[in-house]
Structure formats: structure tokens, C-alpha cells
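Module 6 notes. Inverse folding takes a fixed backbone as the condition and produces residue identities as the prediction. Think of it as a translation problem where the source language is geometry and the target language is the twenty amino acids. Below is one complete input and output pair. Work through it position by position during the lab.
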């Protein structure tokens, strides 16, 4: 009996090690290199890539509804401002490179904003600042995202811009589950930003920053997008 169990035990260990060996490569395509990510994505009618699955889905829906690639990009960008606010938002800059297949022309857009008009050298000197601080309002330029959306849409858009904001407005009001990565950065920066006006009101409405899987809402952002879509 002992020998039978010993053989079975050896078999299980061998099988387990075999599974480790098969899964340790970390790729699903044969390239000869370990950990070279997933297989390439190939599509006939278009594709959307973003850092958040919900944002990507929004972009795909815009394409299915007859929107242009720029329409989809604007819709995705708006969604990321809600779903990944740690790296996106209407308070930032926008840069775009657009290839027009019909005219075979490449267009570039720099929608980075200028420094605030009244932020002078004297202000820094009077406040004993020898350089821009890393955080806070002082290092922030005038936001260029909204103007960038407008420029791109006026030249390459097909669907009404109001239509592009609809999905994000709905998620802003109804809520969406916070991903692990965003929850991590919320927690990482909580102590740094919680004393800034409006931060607690928006990001700590329930007393703490959102955790992984929690449903987060930002109705104020949804209303902002509604106002923009009416302009």
C-alpha cells in the first residue's frame, strides 16, 4: 500500500512540475523569447486599444455606429478621464497624430496649454520658490484637452460630439468598478492630495479613496461633459 501511494505521490509531483514548466513561458505565440506578450491582433474593419477595457469597448461601439477613428479616440479619451483619472483627464494636455487614408496625409496636433498668464517670476520669488513644485496647482498648464477634442472633431469627426460623450456620462452617473491598478494609485497618492480643495469631495466621498472592485461615481464630471457637448 505504501508503494502505491508513493508512486501516486511521485506522479502528482511530476505532473505539477510539468504544469509549472508549461506555464512559466508567459506567452501565447512562438517567438523564441520568453515573456513577449500576447499574439498580435489583426482586424479587417478597425480596432481600438486603450489601457481600460470599458474605454476600449466604448471606442469599438463608436466605430460600429459609423464613427471615424478620431470619433472613437475622443470617446475613449473622455472615458479614460473618468476611469483612469490618475493619468488622464480634461485638465491635461492632448497630442495626436492622425493618418488620413483618403488624402494620404499625416496630421499632427499639439494641444498642450500655455503657462498661466499671471504666474510670474515675481510670484515665485515672493514665495521663496526657486523651482516649480512637483505637485499642486503651480506646475499645471492651462488645460488643452477640450480644445484638442474640438480641433480634431471639426476636421475628422463624423458623429455629433454629444454622441461621443454619452457613454462616459452614463458611467459617471451610474458608476463603474475600479480596477486594481487605479485603486493602487489612489491609495498611493491619498496622503499627498487629500488636503487639496475638492479632492476629498470627489475622490473620498465615502471617507476613503475607492478600493479595487468598488463602484465609483463622478456625477460632476458627467455634468461637465454634458455642458461641453451642448456648446
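Target side of the pair, the amino acids:
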Amino acid at each position: 500500500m505504501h508503494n502505491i501511494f508513493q508512486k501516486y505521490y511521485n506522479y502528482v509531483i511530476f505532473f505539477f512540475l510539468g504544469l509549472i514548466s508549461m506555464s512559466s513561458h508567459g506567452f501565447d505565440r512562438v517567438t523564441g523569447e520568453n515573456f513577449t506578450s500576447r499574439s498580435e491582433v489583426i482586424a479587417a474593419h478597425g480596432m481600438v486599444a486603450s489601457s481600460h477595457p470599458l474605454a476600449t469597448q466604448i471606442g469599438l461601439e463608436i466605430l460600429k455606429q459609423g464613427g471615424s477613428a478620431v470619433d472613437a479616440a475622443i470617446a475613449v479619451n473622455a472615458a479614460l478621464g473618468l476611469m483612469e483619472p490618475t493619468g488622464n483627464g480634461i485638465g491635461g494636455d492632448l497630442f495626436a497624430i492622425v493618418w488620413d487614408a483618403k488624402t494620404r496625409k499625416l496630421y499632427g496636433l499639439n494641444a498642450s496649454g500655455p503657462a498661466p498668464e499671471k504666474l510670474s517670476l515675481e510670484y515665485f520669488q515672493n514665495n521663496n520658490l526657486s523651482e516649480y513644485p512637483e505637485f499642486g496647482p503651480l506646475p499645471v498648464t492651462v488645460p488643452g484637452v477640450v480644445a484638442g477634442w474640438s480641433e480634431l472633431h471639426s476636421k475628422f469627426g463624423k458623429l455629433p460630439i454629444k454622441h461621443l460623450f454619452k457613454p462616459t456620462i452614463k458611467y459617471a452617473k451610474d458608476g463603474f468598478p475600479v480596477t486594481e491598478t487605479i485603486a493602487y494609485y489612489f491609495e498611493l497618492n491619498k496622503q499627498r492630495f487629500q488636503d487639496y480643495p475638492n479632492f476629498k469631495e470627489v475622490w473620498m466621498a465615502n471617507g476613503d479613496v475607492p478600493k479595487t472592485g468598488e463602484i465609483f461615481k463622478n456625477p460632476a464630471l458627467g455634468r461637465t461633459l454634458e455642458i461641453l457637448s451642448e456648446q
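Reference fact for the lab report: The radius of gyration is 24 Å.
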